[in-house]
Amino acid sequence: MIVIVDERARVKEGYSSLFGREGVPSAGFGATEFGEWVSSAADEDLQAIGAFLIGECDTHPISPRMLRERTGAPVIALSEQHSLENTLRLFESGVDDVIRKPVHIREIMARIAAIRRRASDDGASTDIGSLRIFMNGKDPEINGEPLPLPRRERRILEFLASNRGRRVTKTQVFNAIYGIFDEDVEENVVESHVSKLRKKLRERLGYDPIDSKRFLGYCLNV
User: Is the domain of 15 the same as that of 109?
Assistant: First the structure.
């Protein structure tokens, strides 16, 4: 899930629409309400955030360092001022990247993936036996052969891989895939996605790499 922070409603709505076309859930905040939400949001909700995009927030500036006290998600500044001084100022504030507008939504997604790769000790993929899981939207591979997956099943597998060694709840999976503010989809849809994913992995691997415990959630058998 991507969080967009900007004082202008049309900017938030525009980015949310573009991310939606790519199948990526998002939410938009004004600067004041964003600060209030971050300070009170549950850790479980913040874990579902893939990145923060910070736009025009002159009246209530956002502190990237404050965000890092709660989450490790990339913080990217969207800049409309094409000057070296402004770019340096934004980097000095603590953002992970500065993107000059206009920019294609796929470039933003690629930059988010690159930041996350650099921050990961394990690089751009996770290997579990013959299963290789990529963190950039690419289909997983089994013995070097691609395993085509629907978008949400692939993202569930990526989310489990990014939390390998830890068990994640159904709510955490739902928030990461659908967004924490989506009230139009029932949380139980996660069970259907995971069931289909496990069946496909089991058919190709010969075993089930996803451990599921009722009330406790899911984890990858690393």
Answer: yes
